[in-house]
Amino acid sequence: MLGRELGDDSAVAAALALESEGLAMRGGEGDLDRALELGDRALELWVPGKRDLELAHILHLHANTTAWRGEYERSADLSRRTSAIASDVHSAEALLRGGGLEAVALAGLGRHEEAIVIWEELLLLAGELGQNRRGLLNYSSLAYREVYDLEEARSRSAQALELSTGMQFGMPKQFAGSDMIQTHLLAGDVGSALTDWQTRWEDAAHATGWTTWLIAGRLLAARAEIALEADTPEDAAEWAQRAVEVAHRTHRRKYEARSLTMLGQALARLGRRDEGLLALRSAVMIADEIVSPPARWHARAALGRTAYELGNDDEAAIAYEQAAELVDAFSATLAPERVATLARSPLVDEIRST
Asked: How far out from the chain centre does Cα 144 lie?
């Protein structure tokens, strides 16, 4: 490496960071593990006071990598460091990205009210600075979906799509589109979800960079959920298995858990009882590891529902009881208006009434 030959430690660190970024963008077998390793090494070697704008960039990308893996505490810390350096180098874009991703990580930890405050402050700041708000709108739609404020989630995704029109960088548009599909599914509108999915799947074929595997994984999970509602169990199992494989390869633990819930339910409907329950129990374990309360109660509700269908009443009762405890504890942290929207969620109603 030229930087090492010249004795320039800052160049060595920057080169490692670039390699880490490239591997994360590719998302092939083993790439995300290597990207994390190289990114960690780059940050260890970074010379204080050198290449600060580059440092803000790599911190944000590394925060993305850790968030995608469900390592939310670490992602939040890296994002705070991004924001601090962004302020020093007067980078509005890095400041908004750092704060926006910190809020995503906080939401992953179940700290939705803190996340919403950050996003609202940054949206105002973005307007004052003349920055495009589409990324922040995408970030924040997550929290509104999880508290079942579907009107607000839909509005934010629609705004992000509009603000992405004509933009060369397609990742925000792809994210907004896949978010809209999830909002349709939460609303029980499987037909609209499938219509949008077909468009987004065609678009994904032309994706580049991170979007190639990030969006593919999201869309495969959504298609498995659609299939579970509208297609045969065989179709649902096939889509879910594909989603599990992509999520596992890229360490997307959140989507691995979600896809396993679809796979487990589909297998149970196919009469493959033990395999189905194993997949659902695995989903619960993964969801517990990533902490996110909505992911945890979603996995338990799927296990409880299927266990009841299979006659495992004791296991079902425990799963629903634990899910209800998670819902209630999370609800206690929310503002009154979001307590009300969460209570209207059909899944939450199922959990509380079973």
From this structure: 13
Give the span between the Cα atoms of 258 and 242, in whole angstroms.
12
Burial of 202 (C-beta count, 10 Å sphere; 0-12/13-18/19+): exposed
Task: Round to whole Å and give the CA distance between 45 and 10.
Answer: 7
At 156-179, the pLDDT tens digits run: 999 999 999 887 777 888 999 999
Cα–Cα distance measured from residue 328 to residue 319, given in angstroms and rounded to the nearest whole number: 14
Structural domains for the chain: 209-354 (1.25.40.10)
Q: In the numeric block, which tokens belong to residue 324?
A: 């209800």
Average pLDDT, stretch 255-278? 98
Q: Which two tokens stand for residue 354?
A: 């079973």
Return the SS3 of 2. helix
Give CA–CA dist 182/291, Å, rounded: 21
| 205-214 tens-digit pLDDT | 877 777 788 8
How is residue 167 annotated by DSSP? Answer: -
Query: What is the Cα–Cα distance from 60 to 67, expressed in whole angstroms?
Result: 10
